[in-house]
From TrEMBL:
Name listed for the protein in its UniProt record: Small ribosomal subunit protein eS31
Zinc finger annotations (C4-type) as residue ranges: 18-38
Residue sites binding Zn(2+) per the record: C18, C21, C35, C38
Cofactor detail note: Binds 1 zinc ion per subunit.
GO BP, one annotated term: translation
Source taxonomy: Archaea, Methanobacteriati, Methanobacteriota, Stenosarchaea group, Halobacteria
GO cellular component: ribonucleoprotein complex; ribosome
Pfam families reported for this sequence: Ribosomal_S27
UniProt cofactor(s): Zn(2+)
Domain Small ribosomal subunit protein eS31: 3-41
Molecular function terms from GO: structural constituent of ribosome; zinc ion binding
Length: 44
């Protein structure tokens, strides 16, 4: 996924932001979502 695919035409995003950092997208790894900045992980 390219960076420009994360933002809609109106500037909003469909990606989920890290609840700790607030300014970083969570990477979707299938079985978990992970923040590369602080290490926050949500297991699915």
């Amino acid at each position: 996924m390219a960076r420009y695919d994360l933002y809609n035409d109106d500037g909003t995003t469909s990606g989920e932001l890290c609840p700790r950092c607030g300014d970083v997208f969570l990477a979707d790894h299938g079985d978990r979502k992970h923040c590369g900045k602080c290490g926050y992980t949500e297991w699915e």
